């Protein structure tokens, strides 16, 4: 069972916590992790790009000059791709880029990403993260105390003050335990959560 240190908001170690191996100690499956990232990026694509082919560009119905005798190459339409104002060869059309991953695959990929953060010692647990007021400066001080500048902060649902305090800091993103995803875990290379957050993650994904 993995064991990580617990810190307070001053950055001082105040204890340790055991992590559930079913979530934080699995065999890292790089293929599933890669698939989950590609799937998320593909599903976010709008797929609305469009250009006109030669059959869709207006004009060009008349043959620009007769077939023979002009000295020019033969041409059938002024809307062929080689003409200015002509259509596009193999023009892009709207399409759906998304593809589906099974629930078990998604869950395994997420566990692999969390495990990799624990193994790399980039999974930081805080005993408690509560603010009496919304204060960006106070949250930045917490990050400085933990020596972190790019982080995914996983919070409990009722932690609104901390959530809003972190919102305006570059390279920091907040998420709830049921909204974390593989892409964010890898992009924000350090994961910060509380003891309550660890319990919630284990409850949701174990």
From TrEMBL:
Q: Name one GO cellular component term.
A: ribosome
Question: What InterPro entries does this protein map onto?
Answer: Ribosomal_uL4, Ribosomal_uL4-like, Ribosomal_uL4_dom_sf
Q: Which domain of life is it from?
A: Bacteria
> Could you give a GO molecular-function term held by this entry?
structural constituent of ribosome
User: Which SUPFAM superfamilies does UniProt cross-reference here?
Assistant: Ribosomal protein L4
Where are the stretches annotated Disordered? Answer: 43-85
Which keywords does this chain's UniProt record carry?
A: Ribonucleoprotein, Ribosomal protein, RNA-binding, rRNA-binding
One example of a Gene Ontology biological process annotation: translation
Self-association or partners: how does it assemble? Part of the 50S ribosomal subunit.
Family per record:
Belongs to the universal ribosomal protein uL4 family.
Q: Which HAMAP family match?
A: Ribosomal_uL4_B
Q: What does this protein do?
A: One of the primary rRNA binding proteins, this protein initially binds near the 5'-end of the 23S rRNA. It is important during the early stages of 50S assembly. It makes multiple contacts with different domains of the 23S rRNA in the assembled 50S subunit and ribosome.
Name of this chain's protein: Large ribosomal subunit protein uL4
> What organism, scientifically named, is this protein from?
Faecalicatena orotica
């Amino acid at each position: 069972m993995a064991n990580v240190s617990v810190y307070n908001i001053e950055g001082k170690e105040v204890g340790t916590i055991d992590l559930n191996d079913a979530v934080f100690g699995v065999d890292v499956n790089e293929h599933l992790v890669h698939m989950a990232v590609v799937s998320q990026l593909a599903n976010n694509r709008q797929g609305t790009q469009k250009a006109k082919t030669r059959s869709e560009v207006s004009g060009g119905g008349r043959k620009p000059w007769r077939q023979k005798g002009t000295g020019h190459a033969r041409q059938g339409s002024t809307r062929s791709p080689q003409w200015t104002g002509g259509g596009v060869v193999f023009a892009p059309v709207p399409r759906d880029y998304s593809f589906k991953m099974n629930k078990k695959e998604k869950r395994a990929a997420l566990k692999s990403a969390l495990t990799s953060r624990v193994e790399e010692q980039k999974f930081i647990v805080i005993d408690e993260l509560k603010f009496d007021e919304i204060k960006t400066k106070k949250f930045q001080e917490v990050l400085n105390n933990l020596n972190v500048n790019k982080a995914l902060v996983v919070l409990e649902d009722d932690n609104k003050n901390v959530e809003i305090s972190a919102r305006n800091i570059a390279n920091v993103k907040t998420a709830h335990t049921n909204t974390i995803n593989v892409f964010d875990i890898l992009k924000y290379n350090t994961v910060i959560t509380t003891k309550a957050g660890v319990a919630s993650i284990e409850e949701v994904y174990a």
